[in-house]
Amino acid sequence: MSGRSPQGAEHTAARRSDPSSRSASEETPRRAPGPVGTAPGTTAPAAAPTPGTAAEPEPHPRTAPGTRTRGTGTGTGTRRAALLTTALVAVLALLALVSAGTGAYDIPLGDVLASLQHHLGLGGAPLDRVGESVLWNVRLPRVVLALLVGAGLGCAGALMQGVFGNPLAEPGVIGISAGAAVGAVAAIGLGLSFFGNWTITVCAFVAGLITVSSVYLLSRNGGRTEVVTLILTGIAVNAFAGALIGLFVFFADSGQVNQITFWQLGSLAQATWPKVLAVLPCAVAGLLVAPFYSRRLDLLSLGERPARHLGIDVERLRLSLILVVALLTAAAVAVAGVITFIGLLVPHLLRMANGPGHRFLVPGSALAGAVVLVAGDLAARTLAQPAELPLGVLTALLGSPFFFWLLRRTRRKQGGWA
Fold first, then answer.
1. What CA–CA distances, in Å, run from 111 to 107, 180, 361?
2. Sequence-separated (6 or more) residues with CB below 8 Å from residue 65
3. Mean pLDDT of successive 10-residue segments in the chain (418 residues)?
4. Three-class SS of residue 166?
5. Which residues contact 301 (CB under 8 A, 6 or more apart)?
6. Helical H runs in 266-390?
7. CA 243 to the chain's CA centroid
8. Which of 96, 136, 169, 274 is deepest in the core (most CB within 10 A)?
9. Taking a C-beta distance cutoff of 8 angstroms, is the pair 392, 265 a contact?
10. Number of Cβ atoms within 10 Å of the Cβ of 142
């Protein structure tokens, strides 16, 4: 239906409606006599047809108005989604190149492209020794890590809002971020080193998965999980995780406190290729799986009972998506620290631009999340040179006013919550 042009739809609708209109006009003379003053067997004047009679047949459900509206709307939405996707990809590519060349050691954009071409075997030319080291050992790992973390957080936010049916949901609401933070802080505070440089990352990832599993199990009742219970359990777990973090900070020495504080504020300053490889499998797996749930999320948005009647196993869907969200969020927090509001802000911007359909919203949120975090990391590195702003602080400064505006907008649309 979406591929049919408006002209074709109108032609088909007119062709379908012609026989009914023709038969109606032929049967009119054999019906009951017309209004007062009209001779039996004749029809009423065409200038004043009686409403509801055969002179103005009601449109068939499959005729022009419905067909034209559905076809045009779907085609317009598809074109808008394609344009937004193209724009996001172009902006992301441009931002990545600019971010790779901008910093304390500036590298012109042409030189960045030449070096990339050289390493890909497409011609180009390498930079000098310092430029090659800065670009390939410092800048590019950071850009790629920002892309993966932003895509994971943005996609996780879209999934969370679809699962809970709540536009104010985000990955931290069920304790994933807080649980991962506890794992990392425990590794720092206790001086653990059984995985070498990977210890903090592994502890954060495992703790995030354990936390979300605990929240899910604690919120189950009678074989089912209610959304309200899940959210309230997540709030309690977040509070408990905050207390544990405070306890580790209290017993840590000054060096550990500085490391914990810097990690909690969120940063990509310690990005390396090994960290990129650590988050890459989890991010790619989650980002590839998530779009396959788009149709079921659209059905779930109708409500749990209608979704069950349409053949959706709501409990299995919720469990699967929570695991995908946990995978994406825990991997992101493990390598970048706590970065907030990406999962809340990005899906809303796309929903306002293209509507609530998850077929575009889920992959689009991944692209837009990557754009936002690459841009945010570039701003964090350049706004206060030679110092560097914590990335989590910057996203919170921008996301908090947006959350407040969204809260007031939602309350105004629903006519208040009292």
1. 7, 39, 35
2. 59
3. 41 42 40 43 44 42 38 67 93 94 89 90 86 92 95 93 79 83 89 81 86 82 73 86 90 84 84 89 91 91 85 86 88 87 87 88 94 93 85 86 77 60
4. coil
5. 162, 165, 356, 358
6. 273-289, 294-300, 304-309, 314-336, 342-354, 358-382
7. 30
8. 169
9. yes
10. 23
On whether the CB atoms of residues 76 and 355 are closer than 8 A, the answer is: no
- Distance, in Å, from the CA atom of 71 to the CA atom of 74, rounded to the nearest integer, reads 5
| Cα gap 9→321, rounded to integer Å | 39
Sequential DSSP letters for 115-150 = HHHHHTTSS-----HHHHHHIIIIIHHHHHHHHHHH
The confidence score (pLDDT) of residue 360 equals: 93
404/382 Cα distance (integer angstroms)? 27
Q: Is the peptide bond prior to 386 cis by the omega test (within 30 degrees of 0)?
A: yes
The one-letter code for the residue type at 91 is V
Cβ distance 370 to 245 under 8 Å?
Answer: no
Residue 401 token pair: 């006013």
Q: Helices (H), strands (E): how many in the chain?
A: 16, 2
CB 159 within 8 A of CB 319: no
Q: What is the pLDDT of residue 15?
A: 44
Q: pTM value?
A: 0.76
Asked whether the beta carbons of 268 and 391 are under 8 A apart, the reply is yes
